[in-house]
Amino acid sequence: xxxxxxxxxxxxxxxxxxxxxxxxxxxxxxxxxxxxxxxxxxxxxxxxxxxxxxxxxxxxxxxxxxxxxxxxxxxxxxxxxxxxxxxxxxxxxxxxxxxxxxxxxxxxxxxxxxxxxxxxxxxxxxxxxxxxxxxxxxxxxxxxxxxxxxxxxxxxxxxxxxxxxxxxxxxxxxxxxxxxxxxxxxxxxxxxxxxxxxxxxxxxxxxxxxxxxxxxxxxxxxxxxxxx
Length: 228
Known about the structure:
There is one protein chain. The chain folds into two domains: 3-77, Winged helix-like DNA-binding domain superfamily/Winged helix DNA-binding domain (Arc Repressor Mutant, subunit A, Orthogonal Bundle); 82-226, GntR ligand-binding domain-like (Four Helix Bundle (Hemerythrin (Met), subunit A), Up-down Bundle), CATH 1.20.120. The protein is 76% helix and 4% strand. It is built from nine helices and two strands. Strand 1 (67-70) and strand 2 (74-77) form a beta hairpin.
């Protein structure tokens, strides 16, 4: 294949990926709101690209559950669905508990200090009602344990699952007082890890996810009730 054609093909692939990542981030961050209608021509103009990579991105996002379409009628951001949390949280806590059981012995003193710092970041962000920072700090806390699993596939699966939950969690971390209980639960995980009690740490981690799911459900129920 001539070099110019190779370059053009690479450039098209990069554009497609950039459009996909950008639109997904707009959905996850709330820039594009749940149930908001999307038109490929408007998104293309906003991104400075043709409609083709936008259509391809929307198809990928529909396959992943971020977008819904009614053929020849509309394309919209998928509504928030607490059912998704009930489906995904058990998978995540099972995989993270596996990471603790299989890789806890690799955690170093520096890792535990990093987890302590990220938990302090979480506490500050919750006090300030900074949803984005709180969500990021929570992910960073759990990421340390995942990293020490030394299992790239496990890390990738959990990362991709968590992206789907960010829309739900951003409102929870920004508007729910009970979210602060996660800080104390993280301290219990840390205490078990510091004592090298990995089974206890795995159970404390599972409890953190289970309790967070209950709190998230209560928060969303409260929001629905307030909107009636």
